[in-house]
Write a structure and sequence with these properties.
It contains twelve helices and eight strands. The protein is of the alpha/beta class.
Length: 294
């Protein structure tokens, strides 16, 4: 990818979806934007984004997209799949469209035969919080994080240069990966932990007298392990739906490991359980060491 002078002039940016991700990107790109326009069916989000200055004004989808140099789609995956072909129909000849969805196969498939496919950058910024909405916006959310770009060979040089500039401004490093491989990996390291957090949190659904006792003795371990359970269903159900095959496989793997641990405990095989835990210790240390040195 070339380092072009693509930003000789500031861009007019349309943010489709003014929640956490959309507004965080808008905030991070403020200095390179001549104007930032917001599009959202959630009028509360639009009003909050306007109040905080993350967007300059709101528009209908058609008006915002037609006049934008850059369109960033930051809506749930199911909505992105429906909107992306429509947006590509509307954009100008030099416009670029970037999405931020965490499932890539279904999104790429939705425009595989579109005549303007080259304008689209299929991206997944590997960042997020357990909260949502423009009030949680944080431009630093992306700093020193990775962003995955899929099917870069189907995207124009101009679009890739634009994406490189945008993610560079946000402080992100780009990784290229095929959609299927991306979806497999995020099922294991992102979507499965989300499911586990929901399950752990659901264990606190007990009668009030027992729940009070649980709360009294709860420690930071339970708080940290269930942090992801604060994420709303509206954010995650579309992800689970469109990555169901890989996620179901990851859940099967987790069930198998939990069954092994359950049997070791029931059968009092403490040496076997010790070896499993020590292996898990080493695996985590190796993974985090490699992660921190990337």
């Amino acid at each position: 990818m070339k380092n072009t002078n693509i930003q000789a002039e500031k861009m007019k940016i349309a943010i489709v979806g003014t929640g956490l991700m959309g507004c965080s990107m808008a905030e991070g790109l403020r200095d390179v934007a001549s104007e930032i326009v917001g599009v959202d069916n959630n009028t509360g989000h639009l009003q909050e984004a306007l109040h905080r200055g993350w967007i300059d004004r709101s528009m209908s989808l058609e008006k915002a997209v037609i006049s934008a140099d850059l369109v960033i789609i930051s809506v749930p995956v199911d909505a992105a799949i429906k909107l992306l072909p429509v947006i590509l129909d509307l954009v100008g000849d030099r416009s670029v469209v970037i999405d931020a969805g965490s499932v890539k196969s279904a999104i790429c498939q939705s425009v595989k035969d579109h005549s303007r496919r080259v304008k689209f950058v299929a991206a997944h910024p590997m960042a997020g919080l357990a909260v949502s909405g423009p009030e949680a916006s944080d431009a630093g959310l992306f700093r020193n994080r990775k962003v995955v770009i899929c099917e870069h060979d189907k995207t124009s040089e101009h679009a890739l240069d634009t994406a490189s500039f945008v993610f560079g401004r946000l402080g992100m490093d780009i990784i290229y990966m095929e959609p299927g491989l991306h979806d497999l990996y995020v099922a294991q390291i992102s979507h499965l932990p989300q499911v586990v957090a929901y399950c752990l949190s659901a264990l606190t659904e007990v009668p009030d007298d027992k729940r009070e006792s649980m709360i009294n003795i709860a420690s930071s371990g339970f708080e940290s392990s269930t942090r992801l359970a604060s994420s709303p269903a509206g954010m995650w159900i579309p992800i689970f739906e469109h990555n169901s095959e890989f996620l179901a496989g990851s859940i099967d793997d987790m069930i198998e490991r939990l069954s092994d641990i359950r049997n070791m405990i029931k059968e009092r095989k403490w040496k076997s359980l010790t070896r499993l835990i020590e292996k898990a210790n080493r695996s985590r240390e190796d993974f985090l060491s490699a992660y921190k040195h990337l």
